[in-house]
Design brief:
heterodimer, A: 13 helices, 2% strand, globular, B: mainly alpha, ABC transporter involved in vitamin B12 uptake, BtuC, amino-acid transport (chain B), ABC_transp_permease (chain B)
Chain lengths: 324, 286
């Protein structure tokens, strides 16, 4: 175990201090940012280490949300709902992952997209899940009799979730399994020849990334109290890809940083777009344009993402950490 | 029996549109190895353009032709973004085209708003063996047949078609024999754009089009094209027709709410079956 790095300490301190200083509407943004970061860290692992584009990551976000929401709505213990969210998402990932992960590159991208369209369509038809209208009246989360009903509670819950995600991701990546995965990302043939069980490791990353998304979805369900198929459009999956690519694939900080950068930029432009005098379509046009331009520019001109590019100027930069 | 025939012709018509979208994907993939996610956007842009032109009293025929030409031009722009920068890998280019597809949303909402659009096609309906069918479906089928015939001739009989195929099969060797690989790639994007645009123009009179309808179109087109491993136009046509007829039958005999699932599941099954025939570990090309 190494000593915590200065960057980690700074981030942790800022994370804990920020909610106290934020106004309510900013607190909402802070919660949503943390949730996006959880999903993006997982997707960044999946894309960076298993080398696969998933255009359906929002389906696991939705699965987690619905798992937590259904348990909550039916009067089950909400804490159980929160635990079920990542478990259900990971279980589904394990089941669909076996056939799906035989696919590569663009085929996997389209297959994950197809799975999300199927899930959305099934949810829209499922009367037990509220159909197209959605699941309403999801209670707040209560832990040991304490109900979390303020935004600030969810801010701390979310960022505790982000911390858990980062620790799990870090441990997976620096374990024996993680070394196998890094070998896998560099050369599949060489990794397999050295005894890395390629298929099983790929499935593992897929399930872990799904669990992260599911956890985020669970928190989202309790925080917002309402879920519908429309809350998880294909564009949300694209948004997670944008965040992961912008931050830098295969880095944990890249997931966090990408989610933060994109969320804040889109929010800034939405504020700008909703000013009096702006046409009603301005916010959506601006956010589509931001996602698109960021994605294209980063892929073309910063193919490793922002975090690896910024690392060079980071005062505590450690060049020894080899990545692919 | 007449109901069956009606579903069949409707399905063939819609299937032709899927096949046209898919053939655009095939042309671009054959030449550049890039899967163009923005393929559905070509259809949407062309369809919206026709609705505007018809609104400005441009006659039918001319409006459609202009829209297809515009889609070809948009294809060129997408191509320049996706493969214009040297050293962009096909995997990166896929993400770039995804970005371009989202950018198209912004442009489309800016120009046409976010409401669905449609415009009239061939007005009459005809009776085929006792089944009443909108004659527009027959127009779609006839136009697609011509396009696929032209494509088959292009790739099999002309030097240009061979140069296009060579660019992807072995870019290095193609360059040695004097083929401008980059120009071939851009040309494939222009053709792909025009094919996508034609699909949009043909299908809009029978199915409304919205700015984000491109996702369903591109997924259906991909599903059609995957049957031929994204390289064979004939298999794409077959895939599109199968898909269209399967959807129409499911919608006609079971329920309209399951028709998209059928298409998507069909695509997944084909993909996975194809993958099962390949070894788990693949050779690296780099």
């Amino acid at each position: 175990m190494t000593t915590p790095r200065p960057g980690t300490v700074l981030t942790a301190a800022a994370t804990l201090a920020l909610p106290l200083a934020l106004r309510d509407d900013h607190l909402t943004l802070y919660v949503l940012l943390g949730l996006a970061a959880m999903v993006t860290i997982g997707l960044s692992m999946l894309m960076g280490y298993a080398g696969q584009v998933s255009l359906g990551q929002a389906s696991f976000y939705a699965l987690g949300g619905y798992a937590a929401g259904l348990i909550g709505v039916h009067g089950g213990p909400t804490l159980l709902g929160l635990l079920a969210a990542p478990a259900v998402a990971a279980a589904v990932a394990l089941v669909v992952g076996v056939p799906i992960l035989r696919l590569r590159g663009h085929q996997l991208a389209f297959a994950t997209l197809a799975l999300q369209l199927i899930l959305l369509s099934l949810l829209g038809d499922a009367t037990w899940a509220g159909g197209a209208i959605g699941l309403q009246g999801i209670p707040h989360l209560s832990i040991a009799g304490v109900e979390l009903d303020r935004d600030i509670d969810y801010a701390y819950l979310t960022w505790a979730g982000v911390a858990v995600t980062m620790v799990v991701a870090h441990n997976v990546m620096s374990s024996r399994t993680g070394r196998g995965l890094r070998a896998l990302a560099t050369s599949e043939t060489a990794a397999a020849a050295s005894g890395v069980p390629v298929g099983r490791y790929r499935l593992l990353v897929f399930a872990v990334s799904a669990a992260f998304a599911g956890l985020a979805g669970g928190v989202y369900a309790f925080y917002v109290g309402y879920l519908a198929p429309g809350s998880f459009p294909v564009l949300l999956s694209v948004q997670f890809v944008v965040m992961a690519v912008v931050g830098g694939l295969g880095t944990i900080w890249g997931g966090l940083f990408g989610a933060a950068a994109v969320t804040l930029l889109v929010q800034l432009l939405t504020d700008f777009g909703t000013r009096p005098g702006m046409p009603s379509y301005a916010p959506s046009v601006l956010s589509y344009a931001v996602y698109a331009v960021l994605l294209v520019l980063v892929v073309l001109f910063l193919p490793h993402g922002l975090v690896p590019a910024l690392r060079k100027w980071w005062p505590w930069h450690r060049p020894v950490r080899t990545r692919r | 029996m007449s109901a069956f025939l009606q579903y069949l012709i409707t399905g063939l018509g819609v299937g032709c549109a899927f096949a046209l979208i898919g053939s655009g994907l095939v042309v671009i993939y054959r030449v550049t190895r890039v899967v163009n996610f923005a393929q559905g956007a070509f259809a949407v842009i062309a369809a919206m353009t026709v609705s505007s032109l018809l609104g400005a009293r441009v006659p039918h025929g001319l409006a459609e032709a202009l829209a297809v030409a515009l889609a070809g031009l948009v294809g060129l722009l997408v191509g320049l973004t996706a493969i214009g920068k040297p050293g962009t890998s096909p995997q990166s280019a896929l993400i770039v085209t995804l970005g371009v597809a989202v950018f198209a949303y912004a442009v489309e909402i800016l120009i046409w708003g976010d409401q669905p659009r449609s415009f009239p096609g061939l007005p009459a309906s005809v009776t085929v063996l006792g089944a009443r069918v909108q004659s527009h479906y027959l127009l779609i089928i006839a136009a697609s047949a011509l396009v696929f015939l032209a494509m088959a001739l292009l790739f099999a009989r002309t030097d240009l078609g061979k140069a296009l195929t060579a660019s992807a099969a072995n870019p290095y060797a193609a360059r040695i024999v004097g083929i401008d690989v980059r120009r071939m790639g851009l040309l494939s994007f222009v053709i792909g754009g025009a094919l996508g645009g034609l699909a949009g123009v043909l299908v809009t009179p029978v199915q409304q089009v919205t700015f984000d309808g491109d996702v369903v179109l591109v997924v259906s087109g991909f599903a059609a094209a995957i049957l031929g491993d994204l390289t064979r136009p004939a298999a794409t046509l077959l895939g599109g027709l199968l898909l269209g007829v399967a959807q129409a039958m499911v919608a006609g005999y079971l329920s309209t709410s399951y028709q998209s699932e059928v298409a998507l599941l069909l695509m997944l099954v084909v993909l996975i079956a194809q993958a099962a025939r390949r070894p788990m570990i693949q050779e690296e090309t780099a």
